[in-house]
Amino acid sequence: MLKSRTLIALCKTVSLPGKGKIMGNKLLVLLAIGAISVAAFLACDNNRTPGTEPGNGSGSETPTPDLPRDQSETINMSYGQRTSTAIVQGTMTNEQWKGVADMIENLIDDSLNGSFTGDQDQVMDAFDRDGGVIFNVVIDPEGEFIDFKVIGNNIYIALSTINYNNIVLSIVEVVLERDLVAQSITQGASG
Fold first, then answer.
1. What is the pTM of this model?
2. pLDDT (tens digit per residue) in 166-191
3. Is residue 41 very low, low, confident or very high in pLDDT (cuts 50, 70, 90)?
4. Label partner for 127 (CA 20 to 30 A): which of 31, 32, 61, 96?
5. Above 70 in pLDDT, residue 137?
6. Residue whose C-alpha is closest to residue 157's, from 115, 104, 114
7. Judging by beta carbons within 10 Å of its beta carbon (0-12, 13-18, 19+), is residue 58 exposed, middle or buried?
């Protein structure tokens, strides 16, 4: 690409027979307009809307694919006068993540305030102790577990098996595991 000084020098040296400087100045103006037009055209390509890619030549743009990423949301639960929170997290696309935390929150609330026959206070205690409970939603557990597994305060649950029974059973397992740990600590201290 020619620099502007080169263009000016080129235009000044161009002289057409019988037209003199007037034609040279017109040529300079035309070349300047052309250079500005090319620069504007090239700059327009950089003003593409973020998150889009060029379309199929029809002037349309297509959205960037929804890629899996770490997702996390805090959910609230209540029983009687008690309230507590838990964390729901997973690695999935925005579309897959949509509504997962709400579904778990609603299932927990239904179980605590509905047909759950266990000790709801123990369940709330489990959510309140040692950083609460973390639901790790897994798209494909790849043989690690079928419906859910519990390790400490972490509940790993398959996205495809989130339902009332699995939520209740996983919470009960957290409560039982914490009670067993607490009992062994108490027994060890007294023995």
1. 0.61
2. 888 888 888 777 766 666 665 555 55
3. low
4. 96
5. yes
6. 104
7. exposed
Could you give the residue ranges of the DSSP H alpha helices within 1-51? 4-13, 20-44
Amino acid at 169: L
* Gap between the Cα atoms of 104 and 119, Å rounded: 19
SS3 77: strand
Take residue 92 and report the two structure tokens written for it: 């999935």
**Phi, psi of 85, rounded to the nearest 5 degrees:** -130, 160
Report helix, strand and coil shares of the chain as percent, to nearest 5.
50, 20, 30
Q: From CA 64, how far away is CA 41, in angstroms rounded?
A: 24
Token pair for residue 52?
């889009």
Closest by alpha carbon to 159, among 111, 110, 93? 93
